[in-house]
Design goal:
3 domains; 2-enoyl-CoA Hydratase, Chain A, domain 1; binds ligand T3D
Length: 299
């Protein structure tokens, strides 16, 4: 992984990589360089078998303030007209890289997440917010439509009515409200934020990565196909899941051990994606940990 990049911090801790948008003076507003570096870091993580979970976050007091508006200056004074479709294609590459990532991607949101920064978070598989989070689709404030996949993801996450409200009124949604309406998976007090993100990332990193990839494919493709097509896809993906060492070993463990973890597995074994875990803590994201130490090539 590159270490010479300027606007994104890349920190790898064993199988978890944390990508931090790092322009805190401007609330991590995304300029051309940051977009390029972030996209390259995401694409590198996708191809790095050592990495099993990606966390995307912002430095300082914000997740991100959207497109760096100072870069729009020359576009508007006529000296250098912005080729919008070409410009957006760069964001689209990033959005698609996140969605196609063959491992889980978590957005860790504290402070402001607005505009394209919010929509990048919406492209991630899960979102954890701190209770100081302020999420807003600021586009309409500056006379723009939500881009970066916002028009696709927002109504699917929170429903059409709420999506239209967020896009048209461009009002802030607090962290707790975002959790209530399904915009984020979980909102936690700021003091618990880092630990919660870490626990979720660790849990996902310890899990069956290949199965998670198949789950992502099933869920995301199913958003756009009918039930019959989804059932067909489910068969194909389940066939792939059945072939994983995670599945085989977890079922074997169920029949050959009888400790408390096995009891937990009784119902989980019905879903090959969820087997192999054992209780260990009261924290939701800590309460299940993977029982197999040895990692297989197919997960
Ligand atoms: O390119 C494309 O086509 C893709 C499309 C993208 C479109 C978008 O992303 S639309 C959304 C663009 N973003 C915005 O409209 C948000 C603009 N910022 C704000 O409205 C406010 O800064 C916030 C509500 C986000 C936060 O307010 P507050 O009071 O907490 O902070 P602040 O004082 O306004 O900002 C702190 C600094 O960050 C400030 O700089 P200074 O005065 O300390 O030197 C401010 O200018 C700077 N900053 C904030 N947002 C941006 C920014 N600088 C450049 N671009 C920004 N987007």
């Amino acid at each position: 992984m590159r270490t010479d990049i300027q606007n994104v911090l890349v920190e790898q801790d064993e199988s978890i990589v944390t990508l931090t948008m790092n322009r805190p003076d401007v609330l991590n507003a995304i300029n051309t360089l940051m977009l390029q570096e972030l996209t390259e870091a995401i694409e590198a993580a996708a191809h790095d078998d050592m990495i099993r979970c990606v966390v995307l976050t912002g430095a300082g007091r914000a997740f991100g303030a959207g497109q760096d508006l100072t870069e729009f200056g020359s576009a508007h004074d006529g000296s250098q007209p912005l080729k919008v479709i070409e410009h957006l294609a760069k964001y689209h590459r990033l959005i698609l890289a996140i969605r196609d990532m063959p491992k889980p991607v978590i957005a860790a949101i504290q402070g402001v997440a607005t505009g394209i920064s919010l929509n990048i978070a919406l492209a991630c598989d899960m979102r954890i917010a701190a209770d100081n989070a302020r999420l807003l689709e600021a586009f309409a404030r500056i006379g723009l439509v939500p881009d970066g996949g916002g028009g696709y993801m927002l109504p699917r996450l929170i429903g059409l009515g709420r999506a239209l409200e967020m896009a048209m009124l461009a009002d802030e949604v607090s962290g707790p409200e975002a959790e209530r309406i399904g915009l984020v998976n979980r909102c936690v007090p700021l003091v618990e934020f880092d630990e919660t993100v870490r626990a979720l990332a660790q849990r996902l990193a310890n899990g069956p990565t290949r199965t998670y990839q198949l789950i992502k494919e099933l869920m995301y493709k199913s958003l756009d196909i009918d039930l019959q097509a989804s059932l067909h896809l489910e068969g194909l993906l389940q066939e792939a899941a059945y072939a994983t060492a995670d599945h085989r070993e977890s079922v074997d463990a169920f029949f050959t051990t009888n400790d408390c973890s096995t009891a937990v597995l009784i119902w989980q074994t019905l879903l090959p994606t969820l087997v192999g875990y054992t209780c260990s803590s009261e924290n939701d994201y800590l309460c299940i940990s993977y029982t197999t130490n040895e990692r297989k090539t197919d997960r």
